[in-house]
Amino acid sequence: GGQPRNVQPFSDEDASIETMSHCSGFSDPASFTEDGPEVDEEATQEDLEYKLKGFIDLTLDKSAKTRQAALESLKSAFTSKILYEFIMERRMTLTDSIERCIKKGKSDEQCAAAGLACLLCVQMGSGIESEEIFKTLGPVLKKIVCDGTASIQARQACATCLGICCFIVTDDITELYSTMECLENIFTKAYQRERDTNGVSSTHNTVLHVSALLAWTLLLTICPMNEVKKKIEVHLHKLPSLLSCDDLNMRIAAGETLALLFELARETDADFFYEDMDLLTEKLRALATDGNKHRAKVDKRKQRSVFRDVLRAVEERDFPTEMVKFGPERMYIDCWVKKQTYDTFKEILGSGMQYHLQSNDFLRNVFELGPPVMLDAATLKTMKISRFERHLYNSAAFKARTKARSKCRDKRADVGEFF
């Protein structure tokens, strides 16, 4: 009975448009297969649920490898589908499986279980069912986060999960403050590191500190204003020290948190004044124009891009508005609070973020998008060009691009000629 089983992972085929009726027709127009054969949607849905029941059973298997594969397959399904009714009937079983895997599993299994817990709460939304899930898993997650003997990866995953689940379900202000204190106890250790002449050195704990800081920042966005003021007073003068860390992700997390704190501070007090503004802007400007040769080009580009925005936020109170497209809808990210929230959920949902923005009631409430837009198959079909037209367009664009590049590269070409 202890032999590992071959687990067939949840595949893209399982996430095809064939289960569109189950998702109320909110799928992205790009996924609508206009030329495909007609499919028995009810049978397809039953097949999907049968597979998922099998994965849930396998989370109790004796083999750690089998359990982890089952957790990963469930994560893929929860990312790509809205499965509220299916999960509602099995939420206690799923919660017990996740709890057991976090308590008794090794590092990779704990990470997979924590990720599934996040997605479970995202699927269930902010109702009483999610509160029951968090009451069971919250203490377990906190224990792992604070356990110095647990693996850094497991503690990191549990810190992220703790912040996201608390953000989704917590109406109890005491629980919110307790969770924030747990995360604070982790990332504030980064303040206490010994500094050398080159600034703050990164350690193997840095990834944990980054995750705890980002999870804490997410929870700060839903705190009452009087609590926000207290947190700003405590952390605004300490966070700049993390800008000197060797780790790129820590520098970026600290910079974006600073931008968000300044945004919240100015919302609570229009005349907000920061004493060390000149020193801070000097640090931010140095990071926004960093040209150190010992850093990778990709890292430098990413850092400069982020800190240009952070500098504008601190100096000019400006935010570069971003537009997110999903299906026929558009969402504008126009502040750091919204950006922090969007980035957090995009990290756990990955490629399923657009689909959940269209279909998930909880996420739509978070971003004030209103009820899901109802689109039937006929509407989706009219929104999409045919495969033949798309092929012709791509072919013409490819030929034009090739011809233009060839002329630019060929020095013998007649400069006056143009295609």
Automatic annotation (TrEMBL):
Q: Where is the Interferon-related developmental regulator C-terminal domain?
A: 360-413
Give coiled-coil spans as residue ranges: none
Show the Pfam families listed in the entry: IFRD, IFRD_C
Region annotation (Disordered) ranges: 1-38
List, alphabetically, the InterPro entries matched. Answer: ARM-like, ARM-type_fold, IFRD, Interferon-rel_develop_reg_C, Interferon-rel_develop_reg_N
BP GO annotations = cell differentiation
Q: Does the keyword DNA-binding apply?
A: no
Protein name per UniProt:
Interferon-related developmental regulator 1
Gene giving rise to this polypeptide: Ifrd1
